[in-house]
Structure formats: C-alpha cells, structure tokens
C-alpha cells in the first residue's frame, strides 16, 4: 500500500491442527499461509463462487442477518456520513440467499461478526481449530461476509485468529503505540462499536492528518487468500479491505484471563470520567498512582498478605467483592 510498509512476518507449515500456544499468543502479527487449506469451505471457495455460495447456504440456519448496505459512491468504506451525523450505510435484515444474489450489484454489502453457532450451527464440525480446544481456549467464533468493503483501522481487546475462507483480504496493521498517529475518532459513537481511525487509507490526507505519516512508517501489510490465516495480537490496530466480489472470513477471539475480570475498556472509560477534568497538578498525581499501582511493579512486601486485596492475588472472590463495591459506589 505504501512504500514504507513492511510485510507481516510469515510462518509456513502451521495448520489448524499444529498451531502452538506461542503462535496463538504471539505479541506480533503472524501470517500463516495455507493454515486452513483442508477446510471443506476453503476447498469449495477455490472451485468458484457458485460452490462457496452453495456451501454457505447448506450450513445456514435461515435466520435473517443484519447487513450494512452502502451505495457504490462509498467505495465500500464502512464509515461516518459526510457531516458525522450518522453513518454512510443502512442496516437491513435479509436472508443470506438474498445477499449472495446481490454480490455482483453495485451496492456494497457487509455482514460482520455473525456468530457461527447461531447462524451456521453445523459449520464448526468441519471448519475448526482443534489446537484451540487442546490448549484450553474457548473462543468466540464469527463469520464476516460481503463484497468489496473497507473497514477502518480499529483495535480489539481479544487475541484474534482470522482465517480467510473465500475471496482476498488485505490487512494493514499498526502496533498499539501508534494510537496517537492514527487520528482515532469518538469512543462513544462508531460504525461497529470500536473507535476507528478517521484517515482514509486509500487516499490519506497528510495535510489534515500530518502525524499519519509517522504511522505509515510502522505499518505492516499482508494480503490473504482462501485458507490463509493471520494472528492479530490484542490491541493491534488493523485496517481490513475485502477485495473480491464475495469475501468470507472466519475469526476466533479469546482472552487468556479469567472471565470474572472486567474489560480494561471499562477502566479506561471510568478513568476518563473521573480524571480528565481535574486540574493539571491533580492529573499528574493520579498519573503517578497509575504508574505505581497499574503499570509499575509497586512494592507490596510491607503489606500483610491478608490485607493486600487488589494488590495481591486476584482470586475470583476478591474480584467479585471489588466489582460489587464499585457498582454500589457508582450507583449512589
């Protein structure tokens, strides 16, 4: 995409049966060619669009899907409208067959984060990653289906294994620390629930977004075909382009932490709510507290073990007690 962009590191010979815990939990993006070449859906996709259409429909529950429909002038970009009063697409409920029949139409359509067990209940019997279960992971599994589309750069909390089933997709990734150079939009209102970059990656305006030039120096790019996979580490920014008349992607999301621990996103929102309007001196004081208690390794040996609470072992009883106390205080 850009001369300065680097290719994502590639590991050959890794499959859905052989992927290791180190690869699944990689802290850098990894391209896994032919990771799912044996999947029946991938084999169908390689036979052509009619074959993958038939395969999808044979596993589809029949329940209507929510699709984002935008006109040809959008270029497939899933984004805000021109004055940021809403979005440049309309959500519609439609059956999968109707959407597949429209793949060649001028309008762009995009179905995101469709839970596989609900809409494609038999799918996982043939398209699965045994290594995930063998390593004790219980991922959220989704399908993403559509024609040409562009999803703005965003980050996700879980670790992500993304597998292209049909079509081609181009991913452009940035490390988490490029946040300040990506011109991220509002946290509260976004096309799909995650804050997105406001930069148009196909034609970046460096006059309006000058710091994006620095982000471009750190970009990693990979293009995936049927059966290829990509490890997207937690909180890495990724821009996704679907390049074919029909694109199907399957992804697995998981977190390697106990389910009773809340999302860091909640902590961010609460911190913004309680700290952002403080005087500068008080904000600096709280920065020191966060560095000590959250991001540092604050010394606790001087605190009796039974009094350490959040500073000690985060067992489920401790976590649930703190959550209950927070809820009680926030609801006052």
UniProtKB/TrEMBL annotation:
This is Cupin-like domain-containing protein. Gene3D superfamilies: Cupin. Pfam families: Cupin_8. It comes from Alishewanella maricola. Residues 1-269 form the JmjC domain.
């Amino acid at each position: 995409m850009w001369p300065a962009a680097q290719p994502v590191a590639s590991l050959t010979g890794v499959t859905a049966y052989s992927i290791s815990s180190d690869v699944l939990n990689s802290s850098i993006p990894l391209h896994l060619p032919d990771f799912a070449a044996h999947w029946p859906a991938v084999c169908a996709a390689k036979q052509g669009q009619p074959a993958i259409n038939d395969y999808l429909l044979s596993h589809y529950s029949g329940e209507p899907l929510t699709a984002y429909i935008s006109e040809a002038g959008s270029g497939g970009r899933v984004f805000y409208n021109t004055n940021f009063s809403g979005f440049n697409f309309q959500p519609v409920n439609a059956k999968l067959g109707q959407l597949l029949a429209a793949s060649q139409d001028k309008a762009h359509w995009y179905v995101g984060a469709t839970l596989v067990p609900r809409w494609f209940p038999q799918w996982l019997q043939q398209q699965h990653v045994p290594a995930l279960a063998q390593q004790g992971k219980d991922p959220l599994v989704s399908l993403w289906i559509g024609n040409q589309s562009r999803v703005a750069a965003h980050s996700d909390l879980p670790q992500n294994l993304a597998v292209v089933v049909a079509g081609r997709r181009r991913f452009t990734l940035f490390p988490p620390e490029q946040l300040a150079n990506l011109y991220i939009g509002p946290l509260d209102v976004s096309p799909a629930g995650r804050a997105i970059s406001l930069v148009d990656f196909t034609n970046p305006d460096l006059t309006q977004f000058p710091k994006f030039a620095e982000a471009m120096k750190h970009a990693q790019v990979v293009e995936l075909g049927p059966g290829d996979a990509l490890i997207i580490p937690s909180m890495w920014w990724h821009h996704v382009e679907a390049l074919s008349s029909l694109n199907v992607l399957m992804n697995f999301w998981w977190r390697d932490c106990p389910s009773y621990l809340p999302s860091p996103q909640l902590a961010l929102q609460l911190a913004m709510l309680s700290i952002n309007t403080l005087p500068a001196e008080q904000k600096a004081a709280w920065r020191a507290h966060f560095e000590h208690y959250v991001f540092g390794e604050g010394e606790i040996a001087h605190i009796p073990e039974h009094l350490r609470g959040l500073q000690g072992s985060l067992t489920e009883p401790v976590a649930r007690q703190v959550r209950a106390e927070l809820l009680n205080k926030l609801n006052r």
